[in-house]
Amino acid sequence: MQHDDVVWSIINKTHCSHKVMTKTQQFCRNEYNLTGLCSRSSCPLANSKYATIREENGIIYLYMRTAERIMFPSQQWEKVKLSRNFEKAIYQINENLLYWPAFIKAKCKQRFVKITQYLIRMRKLKLRRVKELVPIQRKIERRERRREEKALVAARIDNAIEKQLLDRLKKGTYNDIYNFPQMAFDAALKAEEVSGESESEKSDDEEEEREMEPELEKELETNIEEVDEFVEADSDMSDVESDSGRKENADVGSDFESETSDIEDMSVNVPARKKPRVEIEYETEPAVSISKKKIKH
Fold first, then answer.
1. For the segment 155-174, what is each residue's pLDDT rounded down to a tens digit?
2. Are 263 and 218 in contact, with CB atoms under 8 Å apart?
3. 3-state SS track over the chain
4. Rounded to two decimals, what is the model's pTM?
5. Which whole-number Å values give the CA distances from 10 to 6, 16, 66, in the listed order?
6. Which is nearest to 60 in space by CA: 95, 109, 127?
7. Given Cys at both, which of 38, 64, 217, 237 links 78, Cβ 3.0 to 4.6 Å?
8. 2, 48 in Cβ contact below 8 A?
9. 239 or 57: whose pLDDT is higher?
10. Rg, the chain, Cα only
11. How far apart are CA 47 and CA 40, in angstroms?
């Protein structure tokens, strides 16, 4: 049988590995201790009939031990999972500890309440946004910065060597290619093709503009020639006189307006290009009859 009084006298008067001495009180570090204090009623080693409440991964369990189970260390604790509902869990504690001492029953309920409270606080803290303090490691940052700088220098050197090799290949310094990476050669060829396509597109656009310019110039010249012919015809009509020496009145009403309107339409329809603007001025001199000149003399 288990002699609880003998065990407690040895633990209390001599050494105990779970005991912690302070100036005011003695504490117990045993994980199965019900209150955390080193006393006769709450010592798990000096009580053959003992019960406690423990929490494992957010789940609360009721642990019970009897004198018959002490001889089997792997089976001495009976484990009962308590419900998440507070009322149901209290009912389970009362039911399992029905004929146990009142001290153990009350302390188990008290411990269960404390564990449920700190679990609720833990869940709230996890859901809330909390600022996390991350230590800055200066040595590691300096080491990484130096490695980055060295890697950049090495990359620049490799790019310069690659460009020089490609330039030499283009110039034909090497008759044949020996152990040259095919990927770099293909990339250089693709870059040349892209640049050649862009240059060919620009040249095509310039040729189209050049082809359009002579056509526009021809249209402008034809319009100017028509205007000049019309001006000459108008001057000839003004010089026509009758046999009696009087100037005949030439009706140039609707036809003149239609022709001028046609000329204006043609000039408007000509597409606007960046060319020097052509302006035409008309000068009309008053025609004096021959009979009047003779009278004056």
1. 888 888 888 877 877 777 76
2. no
3. CCCHHHHHHHHHHCCCCCEEECCCCEEECCCCCCCCECCCCCCCCCCCCEEEEEEECCEEEEEEECHHHCCCHHHCEEEEECCCCHHHHHHHHHHHCCCCCHHHHHHHHHHHHHHHHHHHHHHHHHHCCCCCCCCCCHHHHHHHHHHHHHHHHHHHHHHHHHHHHHHHHHHCCCCCCCCCCHHHHHHHHHHHHHHHHHHHHHHHHHHHHHHHHHHHHHHHHHHHHHHHHHHHHHHHHHHCECCCCCECCCCCCHHHHHHHHHHHHHHHHCCCCCCCCCCCCCCCCCCCCHHHHHHHC
4. 0.44
5. 6, 9, 21
6. 109
7. 64
8. yes
9. 57
10. 57
11. 8
As a whole number of angstroms, the distance between CA 146 and CA 142 comes to 6
